[in-house]
Amino acid sequence: MKPTVALRLCVCVMPLLAGVMALPAHAQDAATAQGHDARAWLLRIHEAALQRNYQGTLVVSNGVQTSTSRVQHFADGGQQVERIDWLDGEARSMIRHNDVVHTLWPNAKLALIEQREPRATFPALFSGGEKRVLEWYELHPLGLDRVAGLPAEVVLLKARDALRFSQRLWAERRTGLLLRADVLAANGQLMESVSFTEVSIGIRSQAEQAMAVLRHLPGYRVIRNQALPTALEQEGWVLSKPPAGFQEVTCARRSLDVMASDSSPIVLQTIFADGLTHISLFIEPFDPKRHQAEAVTTLGATSTLATRRGDHWVTVVGDVPLETLKKFVQALSRKR
Question: How far is residue 287's CA from residue 295's CA, in Å, rounded to a whole number?
């Protein structure tokens, strides 16, 4: 939704500089000074996504698929309102008011309501705590550029190990709002990119208008997906040695298929994060009708690994190398 500090760029990072303007001497000094407080720089990006009012068109590309959406965000009197309308594929809208998320499919007349802890999605940055980002990524200022017609400062968050991908970020110079984020392989190859193609920052709040559709849903089938907070160990599982840097953020039991009947199997979902990216671990009862041989897929930066573990089926998904997901499965064991 994605998918940190020594000031020496290795050879594999040099191709990332293409298209980014070199800093003039006075700007280099400023960037160096800024590098001494990298955490504050990153926090400014994250807070801009939460505290600013903005709306724009967002394009996500993974080299195989491209999707476009219209994004609105309003911080209104301590309330967070976000609306995303997908502009391609099946008509769909997501409207979030604080931690309550409504997903609407107008053609199918279906509304899904979930209460969930907000996770960092673009243009927010941190997933599980900003203080930990710089433990696992090195921050390198790369220069100045423009995105969606706006001047931007560019930095590279270079992964310190092979367990995670590097990210290249463009932040609007005046406000710090993230305008673009690239996920990069170890050799510098672009794996996935999310970017505003146009954006307006500092607009008047339109929170009420964004949520207006929720007041009247004639003919809609409304489904509420209830999640029961829990913990892996409480459910009889142990993760003996998770990949370095990833800590459990949330764990909950929820219906596997909210569109089906109340007898739908229950899935246990646990989310782990290293501060910048997160991984979802799903555990459900093994069903020979649905679960066949081990499955491994990679699409852009996102890898998925699904395998059987005794009487259970385990699926791990994240914007990390496949080997990282394998380490999660290897570390998982049944306690009882």
Answer: 15
